[in-house]
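Final report, closing paragraph on structural work. Over the funding period we assembled a curated collection of sequence-structure pairs, and we close with a single example.
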Amino acid sequence: MENVRIDKWLWAARFFKTRSLATDAVLAGHVQVNGARVKPSKDVRVGDGVELRIGTVTWSVEVTGLSDKRGSATVARTLYAETPESTKAREEQALQRRLARPLGAELGERPTKQDRRRLDALRRSQRRS
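Its predicted structure, as stored:
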């Protein structure tokens, strides 16, 4: 096998749970192959660079293997090699998310009815601005 469709490869490498989610991500422009936006039918080869964004997380990987069938997670991990910069950036972003306090955390345990109304008002005011 010399090449595989990008949507199949993303699904086989377990970046997305379904192939249709992979296709939607490619169509939305969240996936780039060798720095260029691609269509779901674009073929990837070993050695290609793939950049993808899943939510707020950005991955930068190099294709090291090809598969059009979804296998176990250990097999899927052999299909790509993540760049050290990408790994470092993802770890820093995960740390920032862990350290960030969610909205309303200063209220304590379970909010009272009055606290809940204040929290709802705060959320409404932040959506408007």
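The mean pLDDT is 91. Residues 84-99 form the longest helix (16 residues). We thank the funder for supporting this effort.
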